[in-house]
Input
Amino acid sequence: MGAVTKTPTIGFAGLTHLGLNSALAAAIKGFDVVGWDESETLIECLVNDNIPINEPEFDKHFGRVKEQFRFSASLEVLGVCDVVYFSVDVPTDDQGASNLAPISALLEQVVAVIREDCVFVILSQVPPGFTATMRDRFRLLYYQVETLIFGRAVERATKPERFIIGTPEPRSDLPLNYRTYLESFDCPILPMRYESAELCKIAINCFLVASVTTTNALSGICEKIGADWEEIAPALRLDARIGPNAYLKPGLGISGGNLERDLRNVVEMATEHDVDAGPIEEYRRFSEASKAWVFDELQTVFGNALGGKTIGVLGLAYKENTHSTKNSPALKLIENLGDCTLRVYDPVVPSSAAAGVEGFGDPISCCSECDAVCIMTPWDEFRAIEPTSLAKNMSGNLVIDPYDLLDSQALASVGLMHHVRGRPPN
Output
């Protein structure tokens, strides 16, 4: 499929979280990178080194390779590229439903400006069957599974475990420019038909959700019978059928939008093709129930007296190291505590992201005069909270810490109750 006459220029159409982290990885690997986005404001920010995402190590790496970037809000800039990744975020609603209309419209604009010999790769997460509908619009069309994780995106983009590539013909060689780029990452390349690659992304997330859901279900049993999930998890990790990297940390269900979207897509596909997807439907239901765990603990302790209490909420982001609040358990908790006085703090997300709350600039100020404190995001900063300072400033003595960030014995020594997922309260 032709020879590489120079180092390929890699383009990215769409420069939000997915596009920016993927583009940074390309630059780190030594490629010249062209970045396009329709937002002129975003392009101006990037040109002025004002990075609009919160990811560990991003700013440091970007400072080293920024001379390899060319940013523009003009689509024509993609015409110089040998490989173009379509990296626009697919919008989803709160139920995980994707809106593909703007994606399809933008693809039609992109095809008009790229070269005929340009390799075009859909990196955006689309449902099975979508890429094939675009095959007659692009001569060299591929789909690539993205496996970025909020808070670890730079690491995942620069050190992928493998590349999963949807191709029109899995037995044929990939175009040389594309193969040259992929091989620079020194990891396995797995070509497969379009539909297999699209479903592979969903399959990965379904298995992750299964692990998370099982962990939360068993943690709930631990809380009732006197077992400690943190004692059980190491034994599971040593089982080769489960593995050392399994998702075995209890939490508050799945959030962020991507996993919810995949579960919804599986259920819709199963319904369309008359396939039983009972377990997947149950994952969705159980995840929503897990989001209510902190609220349930508050109700257990305070009962009908919960209304009117002052509650401190530490963390608004749906997980650490991100500014995203999509389907955040914290926002759901705040919604359920409408009759309470709510004090909030997050190191990245402004308090304006939640309605009816008062924001503070540090954890201890937030917890001052609170009847209970709920740690809703496992930010590393919260691990450093001193139990003595917490006890001194709180009015009550209840600390709900689903992620087990604080030391139970240290909290108990200053008279604080500690509720965590996976074991009974202290």
